[in-house]
Design goal:
Number of helices: 4
Helix content: under 10%
Strand content: 25-35%
Structural class: mainly beta
Order of helices and strands: HEEEEEEEHEEEEEHEEEEEEH
Radius of gyration: 21 Å
Largest sheet: 8 strands, antiparallel
Shape: elongated
Length: about 290
Amino acid sequence: AAINVRLESRRRRGLVFDGVDDRVEVPPHAVPQGDEVTVALWARGGATLPRPTVLLTAVDADGLRQLLLHLPWADGRIFFDCGGQAGTFDRLAAQAEPADYRGGWTHWAFTKNAATGRMAIYRNGELWREGGGMTLPLRPVTRARIGDNIGAAYPYEGTVAELSIWGRVLPVEEIRGFMHRPLTGRELGLRAYWPLGGVAEGPLRRVLDLSGNGCDGTVVGGAFVSAATLPRQLGERPAVHYRNDELHAVSQQASYLEEVEFRVLADASPLDLAQLNDADGAGNRVFEFSVWGK
């Protein structure tokens, strides 16, 4: 039960895009070139969906799309465009239910192998749609962006977490294995990995890439990290201790802000500080916050 609570809490943390002018510019080398690619992420769309949105896009030197995700488009369909040349690109699209893209968390994985011609979309670790005859490889990318289109603006409204890009097709067993645990950054073929659980504040606001490939993203607009609300009851028992072992990336001379809000209900008169610091008469505080790392 403790593991499940921790995973649920982690999955509810992510970067919130307002659907107006929020986006993240990422280095083009985060996107592979050639025959194979996988994009995996958790997403929770906002109340205005469906409408024209772009969650992820990358273009080449000629401005041709090499990678694009509509999650969804205005008609409620999910689009996965991948690999393009003058006048054409490969596309896999399918109609989705509102619960797939709005209001709740859904895990998505998009894969392509141009050598075999197969493109596939996985939802919550299960094959959702697939298609054949998709043989256009990815050309070298010169610009890449999370949360909006490059060109005409189609900003995404919602929260995105655990976004990763790979230079190989992940089999379904690996997709399922990586859904509920953070990556180490040393996985085979990993090009970029943004947990999106924190924003480094400074002259440029950044989301850090944990792949070791130097793909930190620059936040444009007011995108912020979502809050996690933790229940007071775990089944029929009161919750007395929460622990989150997720590591957040830090860098030198960067500032991070973590806020915790809690409420105490007193039986009668309001509690004073002395009572809060000795909640059980044995010297234990009603709330204590700890930070550790490695």
